[in-house]
Specification:
Helix content of chain A: 25-40%
Strand content of chain A: 15-25%
Number of domains of chain A: 1
Oligomer: heterodimer
Strand order of the largest sheet of chain B: 12-11-10-13-14
Shape of chain B: globular
Strand content of chain B: 5-15%
CATH architecture of chain A: 3-Layer(aba) Sandwich
CATH topology of chain A: Rossmann fold
Strand order of the largest sheet of chain A: 2-1-3-4
CATH class of the largest domain in chain B: Alpha Beta
Distance between the termini of chain B: 36 Å
Shape of chain A: globular
Chain lengths: 142, 425
Amino acid sequence: MVPRYHDNDNYMPSKPRGGFHLEPLLELADNAQLIYVGSLACTRHRGFEMGKLMREKRMAVLCPSATDFSTGKYINQISDAIIELARGRNAKNFVLIYGCQCALLSTDFDLIRDELATHDINLIVHEHCHLCDIHHGAEVRR
Amino acid sequence: MKRLWKTVPPCLADTLGFQAVMSNTEGLGLIDDCSKYKPLDKMPKRAGEKPGWEQDDHRGGRGFGGGYASKHSFASGGRHHGDGGCGGRGGKFSDVRVVESDIKEEDVIHGTEEKMLQAFAGNVDLYNPSFVIVSTAPVSSMIGTDLDAIAQQITEKYGIPAASVYLDGQRDYLYGISLTLEAIGKLVIKKPAAVLPDSVNILGYNSIDWSGDAVEDLENWLSETGYSIVSRWGVREKTVNLERAASASVNLVLNIAGLRLAKWMESQFNIPYVTAAPFGEKQCSRILDSLKNKQALEMPKSSGEPEALVICEQLQAEAIRSWLLQSGYKSVRVCSLFEMDKCLMQEGDRKIIGEDDLAEQVNFPGLKLVLADPDYQFLSKRDVPWIPLPNNANQAPSQRIENVSLVGSKLDAWLQNTFRKAGIS
């Protein structure tokens, strides 16, 4: 069963202090990969779960530099990273969570999703930062 | 691809370096961030260890944290949320001398200055800081929060010296430590009445890379060789000692994070500095000569294709390289995921900025030995002997390798013992 994914805190099996678990996000699609895009500082939240998922090759972390964010280069970096992961891990479904920078810059995730669709990759963008428990918006874009 | 971490978790960020320093001072860190800063010492430490202020004199900074903050610990009865409604701390977070502004989406539009001042007002009585360092975090750095104005208002309203560091949460912890130490130095160090002979400041000690044993060993070694310590920068230290740092005759930079402050002190107070980790008997002997002559340390040179690779903090790696070169290795490469000083790098050394970069280094043809965080071994496609190094800066290691004291001959003994166990000649 695919969990509810809109702005409702109740869909997660458990809500630890300070945020949600990451692993249930992988249930949003079959054989999904999780990618976090944001600052290095935010990876202090949910660190050990993140490390476990990374070693299991189910998650990756992209930390663009401040310059990458300022110049907009990070948008291409997101697509490139997902394409690289898709090839390396033979995955077609990705769930993306992001930090505050992407929200502040009103990142056009539709553009990224369209770009990835041309590579036969399905991207689910989750608007709730599962690291620090902040809502960036009210819905998940599929 | 640069900045993409696929199987190796990224390292601690600059803002956590800021936290590591501030939590070991009598000051207070005020950070313009939306989420909380938990005690770094939540990570496993040595069993049976006392926290922070309960330890004797200056031996703070064991493993993580262990600072002045713990005298206010929840266990001893005193934490509540700040009156300003922002950044207050409850019990579990009480070993942190960093308060966040707890900004929300609307603050990005209206500015975060008011939230920062509220957070300070709500916590000033609780922490009673002798100085304040304000810092940006990822989002506030993007909107250009004017920290200098905030620091000035704090000083004017409360009479507490305040300064700022501009961190963006995108860089490594040593960068954060380095900038924070420099900011504290510029804020608190006073002009000396006189220079004390055979006295030294220790710069770059930090509670992430240095264990309590190492701190103790280093101070004993300096004391035995006739040096008195004026101040310690990075581990627990009283503000009164930091203030009189300019009376030292020389600075010893034992972690790359102390180099910025050393350069500033040299330009400002004409205090020479020696940059090296005092690990290994021969290295210590060279350091003593350099301290005496007040000259830079000459490190043994490595040349040619690397036979061994060392990946860790630059000065620690330099000390290990030095030992390996003395032990018969002809060429040793040093890499670091953290801040590196180009002047101290040798041919082939490099700063690593992504997992692909790391994989390329650990799979370099001809390598006979790697000394690094065991998590990097996941990237190795060859059967190369691997000596695990302490990895407290790894955000989420598969196994935590605790810091050990490598001061003086302890490095020689540790490496000899480790090599023997691993069957490496």
